[in-house]
């Protein structure tokens, strides 16, 4: 079985890059409608790992890779160059660690996977904070600097944020060289956009968007 060989590779790898590709095109998500975003992400990861592991050979002595790429060939789909000008390519990056260089790695991977030289928009979502604590500008700065460098190098056109209140959004706007073009607001936290946030966004030409991503994404039970 390929599953055992896949398990060995996963245990030896220093980092796993998992690309689900377009799951709708190869039928994995057509039969079932996930109840929550967390369930959808979990199902995509599980189906991709299952399909990938079934293709792994039985050679237990195969080369160990520091970065192990887990992909499913039939799910990979690059953007047709002739259609590129008609599409807006956006990405949302969820920060889960303290390594700001992961921003560049993620953008490079996205561009490579889609076959494009540039992303039109990238939004960063900071990790959830504990009750009673506030996200700070100092925490966001190294990640934002990475995004600014990518804009200057023409890898990204516009950059935005997620779940920043008016105070932190204003601090970021005043400090940043490349200003945020958008800020997402979680529908679960407010039914109506906060008036102070709306007024500041209008004044500074920042687009306010909505999303329903859970604060904590529970991917796996184990």
Report on this model:
The protein has 222 residues and is an alpha/beta fold. The protein has 6 helices and 7 strands; from the N terminus they run H-E-H-E-E-H-E-H-E-H-E-H-E. Strand 5 (156-162), helix 5 and strand 6 (182-186) form a beta-alpha-beta unit. The longest helix is centred in the first third of the chain and has 19 residues, at 37-55. It is globular and about 55 Å long. The chain starts with a helix and ends in an 11-residue tail after the last strand.
Compile the SSE list and pairings.
Elements: H1 2-12, E1 15-19, H2 37-55, E2 67-71, E3 90-94, H3 102-114, E4 119-125, H4 137-152, E5 156-162, H5 166-175, E6 182-186, H6 195-203, E7 207-211
Parallel strand pairs: 1-2, 3-4, 4-5, 5-6, 6-7
Helix pairs in contact: 1-2, 5-6
Number of helices: 6
Number of strands: 7
Radius of gyration: 19 Å
Structural class: alpha/beta
What is the H/E order? HEHEEHEHEHEHE
Percent strand equals 15-25%
The end-to-end span amounts to 22 Å
- Main sheet, how many strands, which sense, barrel? 5 strands, parallel
What is the overall silhouette?
globular
Helix proportion? 25-40%
Mean pLDDT, to the nearest integer, reads 82
The parts where pLDDT drops under 50 for at least 5 residues are 218-222
**Looking across the biggest beta sheet, what order are the strands in?**
3-4-5-6-7
What's the short version?
The protein is of the alpha/beta class and 222 residues long. Helix content is 35%, strand content 18%. Helix 1 packs across helix 2 (37-55) and helix 5 (166-175) packs parallel to helix 6 (195-203).
